[in-house]
Amino acid sequence: MEELAMTKQTNPVRVGIIGLGRLGSRHARHLTEKIQGVDVVAACALDKDQLQWAHDDLGIEKTFLDYKEMIDQSNLDAVVIVAPTPFHPEMTTYAMNAGLHVFCEKPLGLDLDEVQRMADTIHQHPKQIFQSGFMRRYDKSYQYAKKIVDEGKIGKIIYMRGYGIDPISGMESFKKFASEADSGGIFVDMNIHDVDLIRWFTHQEPVEAYGLTSNIAAPDLADIGEFETGVAQLKMDGGVIATLIGGRHAAHGNQVELEVMGSNGWLRVGEHPDLNRVTVFSENGVSRPSLQSFGARFDEAFLDEVQDFISNIAKGKQPEVTVEDGIRALKIAKACQESANTGKLVNIPKG
């Protein structure tokens, strides 16, 4: 990691959080209750009930409806952005220009031109830290799997497959979200993490994408311009083939899985989405309780990634996850969606 020419932070990092929805509330609770070296002094959301919760339950003193007012009035060192995706570029740009460090959840945005202008702003402030929210890199199972791959224990990677299937129980929540804001489509919304993992594991870049989508399990999603299932094939510049599968129809729970097929062995992460180690033997047969949300599956990873952000500020280090990683993942996911929309193979330019 690059050392920054900056004074290392010795006092607690003063943080403001923007967005208190499903994921934002999780980050807020982690920041106030578990993460070391931080003082959460302000929160911003459009929902007054969420702000009341942040004040009453988490003890966050200052609350705002406008993120610019929060940044201008709260004497912050850093912001954690968990707002709807289309607002990420403008919020990041404003915070960076205000001299703050920024943690921004994925995706970086939906419009590539806006994201590139955001990246330009980030590069204009090399003494500030920007970190993108690819939390699966912080999950201990993925880290262990990557160590096995890096040590050559399964040979050379031949093929990878990434699953991201939400439970059916979350369908109504997704419809509400997608009706109010642009999700970016199934590949940007669901599979951008898989894209990042494939790049991370292989050290290769996709050069071609072919995508397909369907609404067999949820035909009414077509009314809001969404697809329930997306499948994309990626050809990597080093010869690896990869498949992305995103969906919202898992009856059993939250299915997040990664398969790596090597020339001398295979490995799978999350093949069975077990809630715990309990097996139930009953009149219904033999069953194991399953995880029901991505938040529960990756709670520790969400915690560790933000702790890393705070630690990087304290140490004056840039993170391993860069804005370029976020841009590449977004371009690749959008190429998959373009292929699905046009029915054509899409070439993915490098850089």
From TrEMBL:
Alphabetical keyword list: Oxidoreductase
Superkingdom as given in the UniProt entry: Bacteria
Domain Gfo/Idh/MocA-like oxidoreductase N-terminal: 13-129
SUPFAM superfamilies: Glyceraldehyde-3-phosphate dehydrogenase-like, C-terminal domain, NAD(P)-binding Rossmann-fold domains
Domain GFO/IDH/MocA-like oxidoreductase: 142-268
Pfam families linked to this entry: GFO_IDH_MocA, GFO_IDH_MocA_C3
Molecular function GO terms recorded: nucleotide binding; oxidoreductase activity
InterPro entries xrefs: Gfo/Idh/MocA-like_OxRdtase_N (IPR000683), GFO_IDH_MocA-like_dom (IPR055170), NAD(P)-bd_dom_sf (IPR036291)
Entry annotated with the keyword Oxidoreductase: yes
Family statement drawn from the similarity comment of this UniProt entry: Belongs to the Gfo/Idh/MocA family.
Protein name: Myo-inositol 2-dehydrogenase
Organism this protein belongs to: Furfurilactobacillus rossiae DSM 15814
